[in-house]
């Protein structure tokens, strides 16, 4: 038998610095590496070139949209320019707050939490690289999103730079707030309420835009608008001042953002281990789902986390038996997360706002996509049975029957939603096409099986991939577009009924694949 | 169904994973009110046999008869008669433990399952967790809930894969007593297990599987 290990304080020296620890980990990992950078580049060059090409194409599209919108002299464009900033800025800040609160934003893996955060090593310094990554990520993503958004709205270059800097700075400040919020549950609660308020603030101008359709006669004020068109020129200060405006805004934003970011970095030591790990788990789940290019799996991860955090619910007994019981339970389930239902009906503002802004040809497609976004989150029940063969067996129904039964409650909500959109869609047939597209698309996406790496794989320059991997994100949107096609092509009412009706019939008569 | 027809009859069952045979020439019958235990080391094919029976795996050859008819999980009669517990049971993340049982009982045609659900929750030790969502249940509690899903519905045949897994000592004792009661009420039980005490207490006969070379 070996000698017992005796604790001797003399065996232990000073606590290592986080920098030394990270260096040790980096060097240890390097020893395990089995590929050089050159070999790695051979594998990823295709991805880099693809991204570069997509970026160039996207940039070109944005540039053209910018030029088109800048020369737009209609009343509708003017209205959009007036209103959109008041929708976009609160929306972006609210999204930043919500998204970052849910992932941390300072997060680490279970392993980091267990092996490193439990040690006496300086926690603040350990978490700093993750913190800087979160801030840099927000800055890059925020800058990209705001630049594209303002560019598409037709802002001239100088204004584009100005508003993008301000919007990005606001998003980074929001990111700092989320780090502060991560340090106490109560702060998190308040931050989320602020995000809710910002969403409401974003909704107000959207509603205003939506009601314009009904308030004003459709008369073109071309002369008035032509007078107003060179608005940027009118609003611009003298040339000499303008030269200083961008650097001045940039400098002020930089000082404010840097000050806040540095101050927040000093508070990292107050983050609890659990709050860091929770975000890490979610990120790992989201990364796994994203690698499958499966939007349903991403939704599963978010929804699963919501219910895990909630923990308990008041049990509500069902009603009826067999199919009726399943339908009733779906209604109960939908009402259990009322925010989703509220959001579903709030999304009605989208087609109305598009119409209010005067983009009539876009109304059906806006309604279709808004309907899809409204109905899809209500499909969690269908999603659960489609990913669990055990659950299907336990319920004692065929999956095809279950898909019909579990789509009835969201389907009825779709009917109400579509009827509420009817006044702006203008025809019963178009309303049917939009409703059918929304429900068929949502059902198709919710019942999609994830790509399987266990089955046959297809050789590609990026390695072996499962067939259908790249079509996965399009699932659901494909049938939505098929249903909307007759509306967009201006076909007769008969086709508006026949094509979506056919899609629905096919959708609910086929048995979903589960393997 | 004649009196001599067994509840479950398996004849010359074969299954392969790719080219590798996992089960070859497996034959046995299970009568009403009887229990058969499948035992054997890991990789012997116990779960695969159960999966073939419930339609989760496709046999390479052989026949599986339920009450004299070829078993087909697409048939409504089969789905109503066979209660299964494999390791692929997931839960609705937003339904409480009690609501899961309530829903399953109703889906199987019981319009007033309240008393049954409460009794079963009490019986299985989940009454204090009745309002909990699955994500907040412990692994043992989830296992108990999974077991309860097979008992809240009508059944002629129980197919259970390692039902004792993740249960504590009291849980295994309860399971053993419950399965004996099931047999007395005429339910047939086919289960795979690594627990000799459970096998001894419940099984009328034992089928031993060995890994094929």
Automatic annotation (TrEMBL), chain A:
<feature type="transmembrane region" description="Helical">
    <location>
        <begin position="341"/>
        <end position="359"/>
    </location>
</feature>
<dbReference type="InterPro" id="IPR046264">
    <property type="entry name" value="DUF6297"/>
</dbReference>
<keyword id="KW-0472">Membrane</keyword>
<keyword id="KW-1133">Transmembrane helix</keyword>
<feature type="transmembrane region" description="Helical">
    <location>
        <begin position="404"/>
        <end position="425"/>
    </location>
</feature>
<dbReference type="Pfam" id="PF19814">
    <property type="entry name" value="DUF6297"/>
</dbReference>
<keyword id="KW-0812">Transmembrane</keyword>
<feature type="transmembrane region" description="Helical">
    <location>
        <begin position="192"/>
        <end position="211"/>
    </location>
</feature>
<feature type="transmembrane region" description="Helical">
    <location>
        <begin position="131"/>
        <end position="153"/>
    </location>
</feature>
<feature type="transmembrane region" description="Helical">
    <location>
        <begin position="44"/>
        <end position="63"/>
    </location>
</feature>
<feature type="transmembrane region" description="Helical">
    <location>
        <begin position="159"/>
        <end position="180"/>
    </location>
</feature>
<feature type="transmembrane region" description="Helical">
    <location>
        <begin position="479"/>
        <end position="510"/>
    </location>
</feature>
<protein>
    <submittedName>
        <fullName>Uncharacterized protein</fullName>
    </submittedName>
</protein>
<feature type="transmembrane region" description="Helical">
    <location>
        <begin position="244"/>
        <end position="265"/>
    </location>
</feature>
TrEMBL record, chain B:
<dbReference type="InterPro" id="IPR003439">
    <property type="entry name" value="ABC_transporter-like_ATP-bd"/>
</dbReference>
<dbReference type="GO" id="GO:0016887">
    <property type="term" value="F:ATP hydrolysis activity"/>
</dbReference>
<dbReference type="InterPro" id="IPR003593">
    <property type="entry name" value="AAA+_ATPase"/>
</dbReference>
<dbReference type="InterPro" id="IPR017871">
    <property type="entry name" value="ABC_transporter-like_CS"/>
</dbReference>
<dbReference type="InterPro" id="IPR027417">
    <property type="entry name" value="P-loop_NTPase"/>
</dbReference>
<feature type="domain" description="ABC transporter">
    <location>
        <begin position="8"/>
        <end position="212"/>
    </location>
</feature>
<keyword id="KW-0547">Nucleotide-binding</keyword>
<protein>
    <submittedName>
        <fullName>ABC transporter ATP-binding protein</fullName>
    </submittedName>
</protein>
<keyword id="KW-0813">Transport</keyword>
<dbReference type="GO" id="GO:0005524">
    <property type="term" value="F:ATP binding"/>
</dbReference>
<dbReference type="Pfam" id="PF00005">
    <property type="entry name" value="ABC_tran"/>
</dbReference>
<keyword id="KW-0067">ATP-binding</keyword>
<comment type="similarity">
    <text>Belongs to the ABC transporter superfamily.</text>
</comment>
């Amino acid at each position: 038998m070996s000698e017992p290990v005796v604790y001797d304080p003399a065996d232990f020296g000073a606590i290592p610095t986080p920098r030394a620890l990270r260096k040790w980990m980096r060097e240890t990992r390097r020893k395990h590496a089995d590929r050089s950078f050159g070999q790695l580049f051979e594998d990823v060059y295709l991805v880099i070139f693809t991204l570069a090409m997509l970026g160039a194409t996207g940039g070109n599209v944005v540039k053209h949209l910018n030029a088109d919108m800048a020369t737009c002299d209609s009343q509708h464009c003017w209205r959009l320019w007036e209103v959109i900033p008041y929708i976009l800025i609160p929306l972006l800040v609210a999204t930043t707050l919500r998204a970052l609160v849910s992932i941390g934003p300072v997060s680490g893996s279970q392993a980091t939490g267990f092996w490193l955060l439990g040690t006496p090593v300086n926690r603040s310094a350990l978490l700093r690289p993750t913190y800087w990554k979160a801030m840099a990520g927000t800055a890059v993503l925020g800058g990209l999103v705001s630049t594209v958004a303002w560019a598409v709205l037709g802002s001239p270059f100088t204004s584009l730079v100005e508003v993008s800097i301000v919007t990005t700075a606001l998003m980074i400040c929001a990111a700092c707030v989320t780090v502060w919020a991560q340090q106490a549950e109560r702060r998190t609660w308040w931050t989320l309420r602020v995000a809710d308020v910002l969403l409401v603030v974003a909704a107000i101008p959207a509603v205003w835009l939506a009601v314009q359709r009904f308030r004003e006669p459709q008369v073109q004020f071309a002369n008035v608008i032509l007078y107003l068109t060179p608005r940027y020129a009118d609003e611009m200060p003298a040339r000499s001042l303008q030269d200083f405006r961008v650097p001045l805004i940039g400098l002020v934003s930089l000082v404010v953002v840097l000050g806040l970011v540095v101050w927040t970095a000093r508070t990292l030591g107050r983050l609890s281990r659990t709050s860091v790990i929770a975000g890490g788990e979610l990120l790992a789940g989201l990364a796994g789902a994203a690698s499958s290019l499966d939007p349903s799996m991403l939704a599963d991860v978010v929804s699963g986390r919501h219910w895990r955090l909630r923990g308990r619910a008041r049990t509500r007994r069902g009603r009826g038996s067999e199919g009726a019981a399943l339908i009733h339970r779906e209604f109960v389930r939908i009402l259990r997360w009322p925010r989703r239902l509220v959001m579903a009906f709030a999304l009605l503002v989208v087609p109305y706002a598009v119409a209010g802004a005067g983009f009539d040809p876009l109304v059906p497609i806006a309604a279709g996509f808004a309907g899809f976004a409204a109905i899809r989150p209500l499909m969690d029940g269908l999603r659960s049975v489609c990913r669990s063969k055990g659950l299907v067996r336990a319920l004692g129904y065929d999956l095809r029957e279950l898909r019909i039964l579990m789509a009835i409650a969201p389907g009825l909500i779709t009917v109400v939603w579509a009827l509420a959109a009817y006044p702006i869609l203008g025809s019963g047939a178009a309303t049917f096409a939009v409703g059918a597209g929304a429900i068929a698309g949502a059902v198709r996406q919710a019942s999609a099986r994830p790509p399987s790496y266990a089955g046959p794989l297809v050789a590609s320059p990026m390695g072996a991939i499962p067939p259908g991997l790249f079509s996965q994100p399009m699932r659901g949107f494909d049938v939505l577009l098929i249903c909307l096609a007759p509306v967009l092509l201006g076909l007769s009412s008969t086709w508006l009924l026949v094509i979506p009706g056919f899609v629905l019939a096919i959708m609910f008569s086929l048995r979903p694949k589960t393997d | 169904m004649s009196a001599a027809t067994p509840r479950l009859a398996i004849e010359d069952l074969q299954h392969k994973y790719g080219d590798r045979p996992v089960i070859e020439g497996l034959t046995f019958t299970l009568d009403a009110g009887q229990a058969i235990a499948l035992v054997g080391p890991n990789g012997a094919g116990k779960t695969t046999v159960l999966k073939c029976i419930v339609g989760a795996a496709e046999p390479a050859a052989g026949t599986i008869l339920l009450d004299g008819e070829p078993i087909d999980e697409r048939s409504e009669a089969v789905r109503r008669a066979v209660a299964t517990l494999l390791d692929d049971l997931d839960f609705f993340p937003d339904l409480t433990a009690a609501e899961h049982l309530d829903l399953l009982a109703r889906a199987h045609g019981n319009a007033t399952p309240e008393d049954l659900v409460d009794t079963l929750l009490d019986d299985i030790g989940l009454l204090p967790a009745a309002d909990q969502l699955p994500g907040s249940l412990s692994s043992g509690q989830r296992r108990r809930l999974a077991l309860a899903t097979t008992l809240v519905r009508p059944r002629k045949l129980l197919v259970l894969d390692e039902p004792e897994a993740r249960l504590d000592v009291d849980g295994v004792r309860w399971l053993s007593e419950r399965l004996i009661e099931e047999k007395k009420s005429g339910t047939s039980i086919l289960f795979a297990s690594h627990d000799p005490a459970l096998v001894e207490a419940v099984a009328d006969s034992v089928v031993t599987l060995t890994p094929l070379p």
